[in-house]
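Design request, tokens follow.
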């Protein structure tokens, strides 16, 4: 699918609702929005997906949030957003791109590995310790976060 990805300067309720689908904590989403770069994938002015990139450690960029509208899932929009994030990292001289996801998110883990990410570690009980209510994903209570990363070669000039 031919899409346009552009930086969002203003987050409206549609963007915010989609961000909350990927992370149900308003507090965490607000924190990421205040410190990161948010981009929207659109086609003919229709919001298809969203990605939030967060500078963390020196030369490290984290995909802090990525979500695709339900009606557009399975159409490689998530993959295009991830490839955009990797390109953004290269152009802005980041050396490492990281992403964290729930250990029960089989589709997400598959997508990230398909895009070249490798598992780096597991943060045990992350979702139990950082979220007020249990999160159920694929019929299981989400407990652990799987962290993945990919080294990027940034572009000179």
């Amino acid at each position: 699918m031919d899409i346009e990805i552009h930086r969002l300067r203003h987050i409206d309720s549609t963007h915010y609702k989609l961000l909350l689908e990927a992370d149900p904590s308003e507090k965490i989403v607000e924190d990421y929005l205040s410190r990161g770069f948010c981009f929207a994938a659109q086609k003919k002015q229709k919001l298809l997906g969203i990605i939030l990139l967060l500078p963390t450690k020196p030369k490290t960029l984290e995909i802090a949030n990525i979500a695709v509208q339900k009606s557009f899932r399975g159409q490689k929009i998530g993959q295009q957003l991830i490839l955009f994030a990797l390109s953004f990292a290269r152009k802005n001289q980041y050396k490492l791109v990281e992403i964290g996801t729930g250990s029960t998110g089989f589709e997400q883990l598959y997508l990230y590995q398909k895009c070249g990410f490798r598992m780096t570690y597991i943060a045990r009980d992350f979702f139990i310790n950082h979220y007020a209510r249990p999160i159920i994903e694929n019929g299981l209570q989400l407990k652990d976060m799987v962290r993945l990363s990919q080294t990027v070669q940034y572009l000179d000039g």
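Comment from the thread starter after seeing the answer: thanks! The chain has a mean pLDDT of 94.
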